[in-house]
Write a structure and sequence with these properties.
Keywords: ATP-binding, Cytoplasm, Glycolysis, Kinase, Magnesium, Metal-binding, Nucleotide-binding, Transferase. It is found in: Cytoplasm. One of its GO terms (molecular function) is diphosphate-fructose-6-phosphate 1-phosphotransferase activity. This is ATP-dependent 6-phosphofructokinase. The protein has 346 residues and is of the alpha/beta class. The protein is built from 10 helices and 13 strands. Strands 3-2-1-4-5-12-13 form a 7-stranded mixed sheet, with helices on both faces. A 4-stranded parallel sheet has the order 7-8-6-11, with helices on both faces. Helix 1 packs parallel to helix 9. The chain is elongated. The N and C termini lie far apart (58 Å).
Length: 346
């Protein structure tokens, strides 16, 4: 069997470890041939691929980024309509050209949606879930999330010391368009007095009340806010242009929120946007282990013919779940989960 490995969407710490796990198990244990397409679907369309074996994946686990590259190049030449068979014909033709029997697709919701479409059209595919946002359904955690949280928590620790020194309120913006998992977990880990997430709008009056209560205790506030957070009655803060999926490019909510907090409280307030720092650098040990186990599970699933599935973390076990469980809806922060943390704000 010859399997094509392809990464799509944003990069995420642990992707290299996942490739290594899949190749070591697939090639050395199961006797597969495996190839990697460079820069996602661009490499597939253009025939830009490399052979994957033990030598090719040597030393990958601690490396950030992804050696194969990733992109948001679309997989299909035109939108898939009712005639799925016709829409998939160009992909099947290239698979035959490359001698590819199946795919392993590493990505988030968009990538796993593509995997489901391919599977529905009869193309053998297995999904490996990565995203720093942890918003993919069907799995408890995605690899990359723990690293992003750890980086954000370290930033909170550093901002707190400078905020305390100047008696300032510090506002840290982290990633999270529709789901606030990074903001929630990093805020808890770093002891932030307020964590603001897309799932739950708050008023500027409420945020200012929390900040003032911290000041009244003789402390300086640390507010962590997800990029997709909206004040009550407000809209998301967007920058110019669209992202790779044609959505408004978010960013800058901290820079909008900071002067409002200062205006309402009289406390000097500064904003920091963490941005793509959250994606970079070496993955944490947790993400390296999870990604490696995910890659091995995907190779084992290919060996046993469990196509149309995704390698998901369930408790402490990696299990194969139908792709239908992973796509169609984002895994957002439950109201009850936010409310239990919100009780400690201020």
């Amino acid at each position: 069997m010859r399997i094509g490995v392809l990464c799509s969407g944003g990069d995420s710490p642990g992707m290299n470890a996942a490739i290594r796990g899949a190749v070591l198990r697939g090639v050395d244990v199961h006797g597969f041939e495996m190839v990697g397409f460079m820069d996602g679907w661009r490499g597939f369309h253009e025939g830009d691929l490399i052979e994957l074996d033990r030598t090719a994946v040597r030393g990958l686990s601690p490396l950030g980024g992804v050696v194969l590259g990733t992109s948001r190049v679309p997989p299909f030449e035109a939108p898939i309509g009712d005639d799925v068979e016709a829409g998939l014909a160009p992909i099947e033709a290239k698979m035959e050209q490359y001698g590819i029997d199946a795919f392993m697709l590493i990505g988030g919701n968009g990538t796993q949606t593509v995997a489901q479409i391919l599977s529905g059209g009869g193309i053998p595919v297995i999904g490996l879930p990565k995203t720093i946002d942890n918003d993919l359904s069907g799995t408890d955690f995605t690899f990359g999330f723990d690293t992003a949280v750890s980086i954000a928590a370290e930033a909170i620790d550093r901002l707190r010391t400078t905020g305390d020194s100047h008696r300032r309120c510090m506002v840290l913006e982290v990633m999270g368009r529709d789901a606030g998992w990074i903001a929630l977990h990093a805020g808890m880990a770093g002891g932030a007095q307020v964590s603001l997430i897309p799932e739950r709008p708050e008023s500027i009056e409420q945020v200012s009340e929390w900040v003032l209560s911290v000041r009244d205790r003789g402390r300086s506030s640390l507010v962590v806010v997800a990029e997709g957070f909206k004040l009550k009655g407000g809209e998301s803060v967007v920058r110019d242009g669209l992202d790779g999926y044609g959505r408004p490019r978010l960013g800058g909510v901290a820079e909008t929120l900071a002067p409002l907090i200062e205006q309402h409280t009289g406390i000097e307030t500064r904003a920091t946007v963490l941005g793509h720092v959250q994606r970079g650098g070496s993955p944490t040990a947790f993400d390296r282990v999870l990604a490696t186990r995910t890659g091995m599970a995907a190779a084992d699933a290919a060996r046993s013919g469990q196509w149309g599935t995704m390698a998901a973390l369930k408790g402490d076990r990696v299990e194969m779940v139908p792709l239908e469980e992973a796509v169609g809806r984002l895994k957002t922060v439950p109201v009850a989960r936010y409310e239990e943390v919100r009780l400690n704000f201020g």
